[in-house]
Design a protein that fits this description.
The structure is a single chain. The chain has a single domain, classed as 4-Layer Sandwich (CNF1/YfiH-like putative cysteine hydrolases), CATH 3.60.140.10. The chain contains 7 helices and 14 strands. By secondary structure, it is an alpha+beta fold.
Length: 265
């Protein structure tokens, strides 16, 4: 994945996905917006008590950078679930411009052009899936609960069952999130990863466990049929890079949220 800069805006894209054409996407950082205080400056989280005018300006800037229409964005109420919603033309603007009924949902899938899908993150793993032959995309929010619940495979399944996507043709990008260097948990969380068959992603140390969420989601995608060579991992820790990223662990609970936004074109 590579950084791009447009004015003060700094963000990432997956070259692997961008080079296929047919899609615009962006993994934001915290730079280039107008929000203030702990939300400075590019907060995209709608539940962060941000000034609405600032929030809308942030979305305008981000979407304009990659030729997407912020008024068409579709947002969900994320709850660390493994629930996924197929988004249609009728959902245009939900969550930012219009009221939304998309609740308890941590994944969005569509084959509709010019309908930007949005998920938020600040330490949790943002995952983008793109099947260029069937022209279908998914954005997934994978915290540790979503990871062990296998939202990655759920996304692949929804793309396959609803749109005929072939897992071997799916390209995946795993964006910035908390790295194994900072994702230290108690043994009760490690047990859940062991049960999910992800023991190789755990490093034990003095009664604690450090877990690699990037590796875990990559393994789950491969188990669902995505080819290893089709998975792009940013390998950027949001806690280590809190000067560039919002991070719950690194900056506190009142910090802002980055966004993964993707749209078919």
């Amino acid at each position: 994945m590579i950084y791009k800069n447009k004015g003060n805006l700094k963000y990432l894209i997956s070259e692997k996905i961008a080079n296929c054409g047919g899609i615009n996407h962006i993994f934001t950082t915290r730079h280039g917006g107008v929000s203030l205080g702990s939300l400075s400056s590019l907060n995209l989280g709608t539940g962060r008590q941000d000034d609405r005018a600032n929030l809308l300006e942030n979305y305008k800037r981000v979407c304009l950078a990659e030729n997407m229409n912020y008024e068409n964005t579709v947002l969900s109420k994320q709850t660390h679930s493994v629930n996924i919603r197929v988004v249609t033309e009728e959902d245009k603007g939900k969550g930012l411009i219009n009221e939304s009924d998309i609740r308890d949902t941590d994944g969005l899938v569509t084959n509709v052009k010019n309908l930007p899908l949005v998920i938020f993150y600040a330490d949790c793993v943002p995952v983008l899936l793109y099947e260029p032959h069937k022209k279908v995309i998914a954005v997934l929010h994978a915290g540790w609960r979503g990871t062990v619940g296998n939202i990655a495979a759920n996304g692949v399944s929804v793309m396959k069952e609803n749109f005929g996507a072939k897992p071997e043709n799916i390209l995946a990008a795993i964006g910035p999130s908390i790295g194994i260097c900072h994702f230290e948990t108690g043994l009760e969380v490690a047990v859940e990863f062991e049960k999910a068959g992800l023991g190789e992603c755990i490093k034990y140390n003095n009664g604690k466990a450090n877990i690699d969420l990037w590796q875990a989601n990559a393994i789950l995608l491969q188990n669902a049929g995505v080819l290893k060579g089709n998975i792009d991992i940013a390998a950027l820790c949001t806690v280590c890079g809190k000067q560039d990223f919002f991070s719950h662990r690194g900056c506190g609970a009142d910090t802002g949220r980055m966004g993964l936004i993707a749209s078919l074109i």
